[in-house]
From TrEMBL:
CDD domains: NUDIX_MutT_NudA_like. Keywords: DNA damage, DNA repair, DNA replication, Hydrolase, Magnesium, Metal-binding, Mutator protein. This is 8-oxo-dGTP diphosphatase. SUPFAM superfamilies: Nudix. Its EC number is 3.6.1.55. It catalyses: 8-oxo-dGTP + H2O = 8-oxo-dGMP + diphosphate + H(+). Residues 1-124 form the Nudix hydrolase domain. The keyword DNA damage applies. Belongs to the Nudix hydrolase family. Its cofactor is Mg(2+). It comes from Mycolicibacterium aichiense. The lineage of its organism: Bacteria, Bacillati, Actinomycetota, Actinomycetes, Mycobacteriales.
Length: 128
């Protein structure tokens, strides 16, 4: 069975929160939508809310799916959701840096390869 990995697109006005990875070495320094693995018995929404609380220090409400599922290797499926911050204070507990970017900056970021697939969908949402 595939391991589901969830990522959150935290949008505030016309900006998107992106997180710069610290590890593993091959992905360090690249930007991504923050998130993590879904634990056994956990819903995707619960997992994403937990991961964002652990990684960023924020409470979120998980909204609709963003784009399509992305297969990573043979055993992982990456899914993104739009999230809304409801509390907490942003802090990069698990990342090198956090940054708010506009639609104009999306293409210029050095993205984790898998997350690039969501750029058209993210651009559409930020442009709205």
């Amino acid at each position: 069975m595939s391991q589901i990995v969830v990522a959150g697109a935290l949008i505030s006005g016309a900006t998107l929160l992106v997180a710069q990875r610290q590890r593993p070495p091959e992905l360090a320094g690249l930007w991504e939508l923050p998130g993590g693995k879904v634990a056994t018995g956990e819903s995707e929404a619960d997992a994403l809310a937990r991961e964002l609380r652990e990684e960023l220090g924020v409470d979120v409400v998980v909204g609709e799916r963003l784009g399509a599922d992305l297969a990573i290797g043979e055993s992982m499926v990456l899914r993104a959701y739009v999230v809304t911050q409801t509390g907490g204070a942003l802090h990069p507990h698990d990342h090198r840096a956090l940054r708010w970017v506009s639609v104009a900056e999306l293409e210029s970021l050095d993205w984790v390869p898998a997350d690039r697939a969501w750029l058209p969908e993210l651009a559409k949402r930020l442009g709205e």
